[in-house]
Amino acid sequence: MVQAWRLQVENAGFLREQGAQRYLRHLPLPAMRGAVLDRNGVPLAISVPVKAVWVDPQLFNHQVTRWPQLAQALELPLPTLERRARGGGAEFAFIARQLPPERAAAVMGLHIPGVYTLTESRRYYPLGAVAAPLLGFTNVDGRGIEGVELAYNQWLRGTPGKETGLQDNRGQALSVVQMGPPAEQGRPLLLSIDRNIQYFAYTALAAAVQQFKAQSGSAVVMNVHTGEVLALVSYPSFNPNNRQDYEPGLYGNRAVADTYEPGSVMKPFTIAAALDDGSIDPNSTFDVNTNCFRVANYCIQDDVRHGVLNLAQVLKYSSNIGAAQISLRTPPADLYHMLRTVGFGQVSGAGLPGEAPGTVPAWQGWSIARRAAMAYGYGISVTPLQLAAAYGAIANDGVYVQPSLQRVNDGTQVQGSRVMPVQVARDLQGWLAGVISRGGTGFLAAIPGYTVAGKTGTSSMADGKGGFYKNRVNTTFVGFAPADHPQLVMAVVVRDPTQGWRFGGVVAAPVFRVTMSAALRLMNVAPDMPAAQWNAQMAKRMTTAQERLWAEGAGDAAQ
User: Fold this and answer.
1) Dihedral of the CA atoms 379, 381, 384, 388 (nearest 10)?
2) Which residues pair with 50 in a beta bridge?
3) Calpha distance 397→484 (Å, rounded)
4) What are phi and psi of 93, to 5 degrees?
5) Separation CA 16–CA 14 (nearest Å)
């Protein structure tokens, strides 16, 4: 009884004084975000420890005379500091985030009552601009905002924890009163991307965009059999570690978000549809010996006049007239079905934010002129990722495999869907290899030691008013290698080049050659062309001027 009286009366003043000097603090325990890794475990995005400075308004508001000192240490305008201090909660307000530890230590060296630090993390991207549009970035709270960071945010982010601690009025920790749920760290994400192939693709693409003074470019490299995306690049890009100049409209993920009318790279699918339904056979020929193949009120032309072409030559010389004749023999429902089953007009399923589905208009509304134009890539819009996946189906003996950004374990059988007969796909493989041979429009895509198959495209840019710009084009090359047993496929798009030879075979094909030659080595794909055969082929090479003439395409740019 006496003891109780002493506690309540004699020690009342002491206890009140001690209580006034001790505070319970409810502090968050940040969760470390999971790392994003390439297919070989090399970091593409990691979290590094940084500091946040926060204040307890109940204490800090009594230190107004020292606010300028804190603002100077943090390099903040005083009004900004005042707004942040008074704009938080009753017990907690952030003043500065993601500071280097040494700056936070200097702040704490000021010994301003009510000022504290908290350990958090900041995202760091080792590849910088090389993978920025693909990976995206996080905000100050560690939440994914764009790209892979957004698509896999739930997997990567982890769960913050909480603890309640007793501190004195100088911010010194006295004890932990109660531990709340502990922080659960985010999980690592293993992507299908190969950082080295990503680098080669980006640097080759950037060089082409700069050389030809183009508006932008994008490229995709995929594994033919698994659908794994090994590289996905866009240019121009941005520095994700310093986003002061970031503009979403300028630096987006063009490989999945930008659609365009692709031009002649659609011709193989026109041929596939016609072969599949029996409208033509592998031995069919087409008389293109005219300066104007008239369909309704439109004049379809080839840049170089030919006589009678077989299917291999229609592709090799990129004949618009030949492709239009094939399409007009094919029921429109069958061509529509082929385009849809190889992935056009729908998102790919790769799971990246902002992916555009493109457009394949319903066949019931096709006029005869549209049927002809669809044959060589007008009246349809696609993305580079869709093109890579569709050509992957040709390379994979007619089986379409959905693109994936997650690594597939070695030996795993990936299920696909058959979209064309095996023989049709193999015929196309052989004919597309001819596009890379002497006289073909893709001659500049040839890789020493490897057989290559592919197709060029040079399409006029839509003006947004129902027509086309007179002198503005998009250039494309899509191909796979080795042609005899395809392993990798790549699509390259360079938009609106304004300098030099503005054709798919000149602008985009060399990007393929540089990137694919590196990718084949990195993926341990053995050369399949004997040195003697390669040397013999090179001995027959045309002059640079002749190569460029053929690379223009015998119809690529004609409408």
Assistant:
1) -60
2) 120
3) 11
4) -150, 125
5) 5
pLDDT per residue over 452-469, tens digit each? 999 999 998 887 887 888
Which single residue is written with the structure tokens 């710009």? 469
What is the tens place of the pLDDT at every residue in 54-112?
Answer: 998 888 988 999 999 999 999 999 999 999 998 776 678 899 999 999 999 999 999 99
From CA 100, how far away is CA 14, in angstroms rounded?
41
Chain centroid to Cα 304, Å, comes to: 36
Q: Can you tell me the distance from the alpha carbon of 471 to that of 72, in angstroms, rounded to the nearest whole number?
A: 55
Alpha-carbon distance of 473 to 150, in angstroms, equals: 33
Residue with tokens 């920025």: 132
Distance of CA 228 to the CA centre of its chain: 13
Domains, the chain, ranges and CATH?
195-551 (3.40.710.10)
Q: Give 2-5's long-range contacts (Cβ < 8 A, gap of 24+).
A: none
Q: What is the DSSP letter of 146?
A: S
Please write the tens of the pLDDT for every residue from 274-283.
999 999 999 9
Cα–Cα dist 475/510, whole Å: 12
Note the Cα 462 to chain centre separation in Å: 23
Looking at the annotation, which residues are catalytic?
264
Structure tokens at 501: 């030879």
Which of 442, 391, 446, 396 is CA-nearest to residue 417?
396
Phi, psi dihedrals of residue 197, rounded to the nearest 5°: -65, -40
End-to-end CA, the chain: 103
In eight-state DSSP terms, residue 7 is I
Helix (H) or strand (E) holding 13: helix 12-20
Q: Taking the C-alpha atoms of 19, 20, 24 and 27 in order, what is their torsion angle to the nearest 10 degrees?
A: -160
pLDDT, tens only, 204-229:
999 999 999 999 999 999 999 999 99
- Contact between 538 and 446 (Cβ < 8 Å): no
Tell the burial category of 94 from Cβ atoms under 10 Å away from its Cβ (0-12, 13-18, 19+). middle
Residue type, 431: W
| CA pair distance 96, 88, nearest whole angstrom | 12
Q: Quick check: 405 and 194 in contact, CB under 8 A?
A: no
Structure-token pair, residue 504: 């798919």
CA pair distance 483, 505, nearest whole angstrom? 18
How open is the CA angle 518-519-521, to the nearest 5 degrees?
Answer: 70
